[in-house]
Amino acid sequence: MQTSGGQVWTLTAMCVTVILVSFIALLISPETRYVDLDRDE
Amino acid sequence: MSAIDYDVLNRRTPRESKKISPMARRAAISSTLGSALEWIDFTAYGAVAATVLPTQFFPTMDPSTAVLASFATFGVGFFARPAGGVLLGILGDRIGRKEVLLYTLILMGVASFLIGVLPTYASIGLWAPGLLVFLRFLQGFALGGESTGAQLLTMEHAPADRRGFFGSLINVGAPTAQVLSNGLLFLIAATMTSEQFMSFGWRIPFLMSIVLVVLGVYIRLKVEETPAFQHMKEHQKAAKPGDHRRASMKSVLRTHGGTVLRLLMYWAAPSACFYVVTVFSLGYLTKTVGISNQTAFLCLTGANLVAILTTLIAGAASDRFGRKPPAILASLVMIAIALAYFPLLGTGNGIVVFVAMSIFIGAIQAQAVSCPRFSPSLSRPLSGIPAPHWLIPARTWHFRVHHPFLRPG
């Protein structure tokens, strides 16, 4: 399997894109360190 | 409550320090070992998909097409994971996490064992790749359920102020499995001729699945059902048909749709990038860069050892500094290394390759370990809705898999 430079850069672009998508999700997520699993609302 | 007021939740639930109960410790050990055992089978397949399966199951294709076909069978497992997460998750909400975890372990073990004894194309023709796809689907299906249940079992038993670290123990399963399965394959390859390895050596990790299943079942039988699950069952008993407290897929998506969407977005990076490092890189290094199989496997194994450390550190840091700061740092590192990754691999220098892989997969694991905790509402009774835990593996709608969860905490 010979991987061309174009294929590698396509893969790099895909990685960067999904990382940015994840980063956005992270930024808009709340901090949940103190949430209690056992407590009813 | 149609929207979640996290500030209110946080004010109502001040941080409390609780002792680590024997059951919490047992649940963590059980889930960690169980997950690692299942990941060994899953990972072993990924390793041989790049090196063995193309010639054994797709010999009539040209080499490039055979590799693509082999990776396609690997991909079948990723499509099966969401199905396993949803169906086994629903089952887990009905009969308990512990029971489902026993089923997933047995299913994974049987599927992996059968891969180990599967005749090749030379013996049974097209049946060989067909059965391989089916067994691969079962592997992914089982792992989808495993990821969900193991996270819940551990998180729901863990002390409130240590959920980050306890949750990270489950995430250690994937890199640990990489180390063990690749290490085993490396040993087998090193003690056999190439012909022997291609003929039967690659089957050994799959055949060993039976041993792992027996061990895993024994461990899991020692763990009790979680208090949170018992609490949820009480809610369900109190709920009448049509009652808003009776959970359903529709009600959860309606009331927690934003959270589900955030999870899908968040898991895109660790899910996709993990396999770029652990699967694609092997083929790239050996076929394109031209370094030996042994060197490539050694670099990946070393990088996974580093990832085990970063996983645990990130888990502990999320308890100390909050869930977001470690994840933000990991994301920034991921962006930087993603841009430099393939140029670094292209040097062909073993040390440089090892460092690049270590940084990338270490950051991936550090980011992944924080994700589940951003969705507390899906695994806790909220507004009277005992949210089903099948939503936990929402991330698996992305290509792969890697582990489990909406763990709050």
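Chain A has a mean pLDDT of 77.
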